[in-house]
Write a structure and sequence with these properties.
alpha/beta; 17 strands; 33% helix
């Protein structure tokens, strides 16, 4: 069955870009699936057409099948998988045509250098960028997350101290310019290497994403944090460093970097490099709990009022009230 192609924007009408969902790896796939559920919603739910790309993974077709099964369980109408292993595959027009009407692209974890080496600069790489420009959400987890940006951590060592030559940077797919992404951030102690990279390239904003955590970036460059961990943002606009003269693997002096550690619900403007007011939507369950709590508070207040009523009356005052009440009754009976 042939499917109609999405309508192209009319002359003078700019295409509306989609969201980017950048996942730090090890996202919850079994329980609440908060991050993946947001992906499913933005992809179009039952009407979504998702393409899973598992080039980065060393697990072969198992990685593809895992996400195909998972997204189908979550109600997505159509899920396709591909795993180009060489650049010739990524330049195969028949393979690339799988993205023609896709509403979402999901890139798995694995080795980000393999992913960028196979896909960047190919027909497939350009098709991913084009689908995103025309509204498709592009998501990546772990290695797939790193490859989303214009600049990518290729590989490196762990540690909290920034050192010369502790990591290497390469080009990513270019979907998020001006940002450098690292994943498994807290769990694999990658603070030092991200700090070293922004010291060497202070035009870039560093973003470190914890496991089971995601940065959801809107077409306007507003990032919202989802999941259990935090997103660390390093802004080196006012940096001072000696990275240009440090030799071999010695520590680098870094000063003046602005650090933002943002848990779920917080937002950050990546273009203006500015923290925004937190976005904490109230779920139906939260509203119900708030209503119950308010009712309980009213009940407690009423109970306290009833208990306090007359509590300050002295015995003579209570006796006076009883005498006045008896007098009124006698007066009413004599009328």
């Amino acid at each position: 069955m042939l499917r109609a192609m999405p309508a192209a924007p009319s002359p003078g009408q700019a295409a509306r870009a989609g969201h980017l969902l950048i996942i730090g790896g090890a996202e919850d796939k079994l329980r609440q699936r908060q991050i993946l559920a947001r992906f499913v919603t933005l992809a179009g739910g039952a009407e979504a057409r998702v393409v899973v790309i598992s080039t980065a993974s060393s697990l072969g077709d198992e990685a593809t099948e895992l996400y195909l099964s998972l997204f189908k369980q979550m109600g997505i109408g159509e899920v396709r998988g591909m795993r180009p292993l060489v650049r010739d595959d990524a330049n195969d027009r028949r393979l690339v045509s799988m993205l023609d009407d896709a509403t979402a692209v999901f890139m798995t974890g694995g080795n980000q250098l393999r992913l960028s080496s196979v896909i960047s600069g190919t027909l497939l790489g350009r098709a991913i960028v084009e689908r995103h420009r025309h509204g498709a959400i592009v998501a990546g987890t772990s290695a797939g997350a790193s490859a989303i940006a214009s600049h990518m951590v290729a590989f490196g060592t762990s540690g909290a101290t920034p050192k010369q030559r502790m990591t290497q940077m390469s080009a990513g797919l270019g979907l998020l310019p001006g940002v450098l992404i690292d994943q498994h951030f807290e769990q694999r102690n990658r603070f030092g290497r991200l700090l070293a990279l922004v010291a060497q390239s202070p035009a870039l904003l560093g973003m470190g994403i914890d496991e089971d955590t995601a940065a959801l970036v809107s077409p306007k460059g507003i990032m919202e944090v989802l999941g259990k961990g935090s997103v660390t943002v390093l802004d080196p606009a006012n940096i001072r460093t000696d990275a240009y003269e440090v030799k071999r693997h010695r520590p680098i002096m870094v000063s003046g970097v602005i650090l933002h550690s943002l848990p779920s619900g917080y937002r950050f403007d990546l273009r203006r490099r500015k923290l925004m007011a937190p976005l904490r939507p109230v779920s139906a369950t939260d509203r119900e709990l708030a209503s119950i709590q308010a009712a309980m508070n009213r009940t407690r207040k009423l109970i306290r009022s009833i208990a306090a009523e007359g509590a300050d009356d002295t015995a003579p005052e209570r006796a006076r009230r009883r005498r006045a009440l008896r007098a009124r009754r006698v007066e009413e009976a004599s009328e």
